[in-house]
Here is the input.
Amino acid sequence: MQQDIQVTIVGSSNVDITALMRRLPGPGETVLADSYQLSPGGKGANQALAAQLAGAATEFIGAVGRDSHAPIALAQLEEARVSTGRVARSEQPTGVAIIQVDAAAENSIAVVSGANATVDAEAVAAAGPLQGIVVLQGEIPASGITAAMDAAAGRVVLNLAPVIELDHAHLLAANPLVVNEHEAALILQQLDSSDEPTSDAEPAIAARLLEHGLASVVITLGAKGCLVAEQGAPIQQLPAVNVEAVDTTGAGDAFTGALAARLAQGDTLAQAADFAGRFAALTVQGHGAQSSYPRSLANL
Here is the structure.
């Protein structure tokens, strides 16, 4: 295991099967796609690649199968020299995401967890110590998330996407919680023990999340940028970079990984979020998730 790891990502690794089409199908409808591609993905792996490309020595801990998809899932991480020595090989198949992308860059995604479902508390414990900033998402079992939070020696960045049930103590241990506006409302619903998600605007949601005890929150808002909220400080809205989006797949993961990298390098949360927004803006100008991530920081 590397001794200089700045960011450790514990999470999911998938192969993305992406179909490009003029419009997304409705329920029960068949739409002819223009093309398709196989590429590496998964929120955890995407974030690990983004953190490495954003300048932080990064390790990815997760699981893949023993099938033909496994080398595809790990190829770009290994090319970028992300540490993958603690990725487990499971008897379950490598996770798969089935993605549809339309001409307006909107997408719909169905995920088959496969080996990612084995990244539970037992697997995290077996992996051993977690170094640097630890980043987690919602595509592994809740027990794996909480075990990794308990094992983290330093700061924990929690991107609870998709939103799954976590006990309140672990939700509140995130610093920051990184979510989009829809996820923020669902997490506030969990903390409020409410039957319905709130209809409050994003700044009010961020303020209420802080009132529950979170140290910091970043709410991504797509083309409107992001909100940065920290205890004892005014909420800031950072504008988005104005670009023409081709494919938004993986942009949120790029943001989270880059944010963690910059936090590991000493940026304030607002500085890290500003950089992450610019990094993510570069990714939406190309197709795919990891393949669209910038290999150079020269334009940032």
